[in-house]
Design a protein that fits this description.
Structural class of chain B: alpha/beta
Number of helices of chain A: 10
Distance between the termini of chain B: 13 Å
Largest sheet of chain B: 5 strands, parallel
Largest sheet of chain A: 5 strands, mixed
Distance between the termini of chain A: 43 Å
Strand content of chain B: 15-25%
Radius of gyration of chain B: 13 Å
Oligomer: heterodimer
Strand content of chain A: 5-15%
């Protein structure tokens, strides 16, 4: 019982449970409202004391105001709590669904692996092609599920970061090599410029790799057979600046403010290519922000886009 | 012939894994829930145990704990094979004495068989 009360009073854990920032968290707002009510009551009392003769009248007015404010704040906090609960349930739902989907999915994948291996009978030419379709699509679904899981974990603040110093330059070179098959297939040359020796940054290498890989993958995909993709890294004050510039489709003005939102996909891209989850940039933003960095872009439709991020050195 | 015990409630996973592992020249025994998995481990004394975490009757953690407490089974290496990937679960399993922790969806079937083979060779 005692523990339960203490837990209720711990604002930080309560807000974390809802996955909300402090100012949107019902518990925090409740405390703020309480302070506001106390201050206004005291102020009303002292002002009244100075200008009104009858102390009883003052007390009555102050009590009425306090009562009114109390009811008001109660209603406001209650509705906030409902909203927060809905948002928490949404997050949980997402996590459970994506987790439950993985089990039948493993079955599917293993069976495809088994058929492909030829261990249960030789696969004929035509069949091979269909199996390939099955495999590719199951991989697409797999990556969608894991992106959903990642996104929901970031929203709940449940991602532990393994922080260590590492070279952003080396990491970028690795990612470029990894994506070579994709860039070659799209006839795109990926240029990399990093003139000076840059100091190590401090962060979770795996997640930063995810960001670079995502930005580069987008740049290559949305450029397709025209032009080039260029990555530049340099030191900017106490931070490292990273950018990927492409000469691809660009992002229309009206879509720009939504680009980092979950499940959002720009109109001009959807016309050409329907694949993709709309989660990549949301995850990238979550990762960079959890590293106390900044992410952004500039773009014009038809002129290409430049996505950049800034990460602190230490 | 080396013997592997696969404790997993999804029979389809057992079926597909069996084809692979038996063609590699291993024997596989299997259980569909935690309790019979533990009993089978005591009875068959396998060279390696593959253990899922979400299981009926006894869950994977409980099975692992029992295996490591029992003098007959505590030396058998256990590989956790699951779709849970919370760092908490991973740490808990490793603390309880699991040899490795593998997330199913991160590996293809043949990669997994390689892992099992490697683990068995290390034991020799």
């Amino acid at each position: 019982m005692k523990n339960k009360i203490i837990e209720q009073l711990n604002l930080k854990t309560q807000c974390k449970k809802y996955g909300l920032p402090l100012w949107q968290c019902p518990h925090f707002i409740f405390v703020v409202m309480g302070v506001v009510i106390m201050v206004t009551s005291l102020l009303a009392y002292f002002i009244g004391f100075r200008y009104v003769e009858d102390p009883l009248l003052i007390c009555l007015v102050v009590m009425l105001i306090t009562g009114f404010l109390f009811i008001l704040s109660f209603v406001v906090v209650k509705s906030f709590e409902n909203l927060a609960e809905a948002s928490r349930m949404k997050l949980e739902f997402l996590a459970i669904i994506s987790h439950q989907m993985r089990t039948p999915f493993s079955n599917l994948r293993w069976v495809i692996d088994l058929l492909n291996s030829g261990r249960v009978g030789e696969v004929q030419n035509d069949q091979q092609e269909y199996l390939k379709i099955l495999k590719e699509n199951s991989e697409r679904m797999e990556s969608l599920i894991s992106q959903l899981l990642t996104a929901s974990k970031f929203e709940q603040g449940k991602i532990p970061l393994k922080m260590a110093g590492f070279s952003l330059k080396t990491l970028t070179e690795k990612v470029i090599t990894e994506l070579k098959p994709l860039s070659n297939a799209s006839n795109i040359e990926v240029k990399f410029e990093c003139k000076e020796e840059i100091p190590d940054i401090f962060g979770d290498q795996d997640w930063i790799r995810e960001v670079i890989s995502n930005l580069l993958d987008n740049a290559i995909k949305y450029t397709k057979n025209k032009g080039e993709v260029k990555i530049t890294i340099f030191k900017k004050g106490q931070k490292i600046y990273f950018e990927v510039k492409d000469t691809g489709a660009g992002i229309p003005k009206e879509d720009q403010k939504y680009i980092f939102e979950k499940f959002f996909r720009a109109q001009n891209i959807l016309k050409k290519q329907t694949q993709g989850s709309g989660l990549g940039l949301f995850i990238a933003k979550s990762i960079i922000e959890s590293h106390k960095g900044k992410i952004g872009f500039k773009s014009e439709a038809g002129e290409g886009s430049t996505f950049w991020f800034l990460l602190p050195i230490k | 012939m080396k013997k592997i015990l696969f404790i997993e409630d999804e029979s389809a996973l057992q079926k597909t894994f069996r084809v692979f592992i038996e063609q590699e020249g291993y024997k596989m025994v299997s259980a569909l829930d935690g309790e019979s998995g533990f009993n089978l481990a005591k009875l068959e004394k396998p060279d390696l145990i593959l253990l899922d975490l979400i299981l009926p009757r006894l869950n994977g953690f409980e099975v692992l704990e029992k295996l490591k407490e029992d003098y007959e089974t505590k030396e058998i290496p256990v590989i956790i094979l699951t779709n849970l990937e919370n760092p908490d679960d991973i740490n808990k399993a490793l603390e309880l004495g699991a040899k490795t922790y593998l997330v199913k969806s991160n590996y293809t079937l043949s990669e997994l068989v390689e892992k099992v083979k490697k683990a068995l060779e290390e034991e020799r």
